[in-house]
Design goal:
Helix content is 41%, strand content 17%. With 292 residues, it is of the alpha/beta class.
């Protein structure tokens, strides 16, 4: 790479790091993931993300040997600014790695992109060592799901997961000893509005610089940073209120730490007529054996 190209790449990274420091939501996501991930020194780790290079580089700061999988060429181009080597583009739900290769697998905003999320989780199980752990972050789908707008335009297969759906997709191969819910509508609503404005100003995902980034992008970054600096104090105050609201309402995001166990499909028991036990109970009067 030419000296000018290296300087340009360095400037892209510098601006992205500055923008990251103005995003309460991205900082919170990283903090929650690192909280559950723990120490990665001398470990083999796999990160499967959507292309946020600053989060990737921050995960690597904890030590260990890392491999990164991304969903498409656009995310790959963005990640190349932050991560040198060991970047692969995910082919459907298949992970190109031998069995039991990793001590930890970290999935950041990627499960919602998988058409067959169960097959993807089975692949994560396959490449994890026997005592490995899966840390996975997803958007919660619930009563405030209207906040998760535009998910189809972003190439997602779903807007998120309810708590039950999240457990259901993990239950065949993982125990889930710890789950953190974070970020209520107090932070999510204004945060998503700011993100939409930033993406429109940048002409794409503002946190994913393209391969052909030039001085025009730095002009956009300057305006984005000014916007971020303006709203940061408000978002910081809202985040403090958010911590109180989490005692009352669930957060809009979930991050779980799972423990690998032997893969065994857990199917819901069904009666001869095809109904589940829960469905039969709902249609049967208590104290009788007949559904009337």
């Amino acid at each position: 790479m030419k000296a000018m190209d290296k300087n340009l790449s360095g400037e892209v990274v510098r601006w992205q790091e500055k923008l990251f420091k103005r995003s309460i939501r991205r900082q919170t996501r990283l903090r929650k993931i690192k909280q559950l991930l723990g120490n990665t020194s001398n470990q083999q780790c796999l990160e499967i993300g959507a292309g946020d290079g600053v989060i990737s580089s921050q995960l690597r700061a904890g030590g260990g040997s890392w491999t990164t999988l991304v969903p498409d060429a656009e995310a790959n181009a963005s990640m190349n600014y932050f991560v040198k080597g060991n970047i692969q583009v995910l082919q459907n739900e298949t992970i190109d790695a031998p069995e039991q290769s990793f001590d930890a697998v970290v999935v950041v905003d990627a499960l919602e992109r998988m058409r067959d999320d169960r097959a993807f989780i089975k692949e994560c199980h396959r490449v994890l060592k026997t005592d490995g752990r899966l840390i996975i972050s997803v958007a919660r789908r619930g009563v405030f799901g209207f906040l998760k707008t535009g998910w189809k335009r972003k190439g997602l297969a779903r807007s998120g997961y309810t708590s039950g759906e999240f457990f259901d997709v993990l239950k065949d191969g993982f125990d889930v000893p710890e789950t953190i819910s974070y970020s209520t509508c107090c932070v999510e609503a204004p945060g998503l509005l700011c993100e939409a404005a930033a993406n429109k100003l940048a002409g794409g995902a503002y946190n994913m610089p393209p391969a052909d980034a030039d001085t025009q992008h730095f002009y956009h970054y300057t305006k984005l940073y000014a916007l971020g600096t303006l709203v940061y104090p408000i978002m910081w105050l809202l985040s403090k209120l958010d911590g109180v609201l989490l005692f009352i309402v669930p957060g809009h995001n979930l991050v779980a730490k799972t423990k690998r166990r032997v893969w065994r499909e857990r199917r819901t028991p069904q009666l001869i007529d095809g109904r589940s036990i829960a469905e039969a109970a709902l249609n049967t009067k208590i104290g009788t054996a007949a559904p009337f």
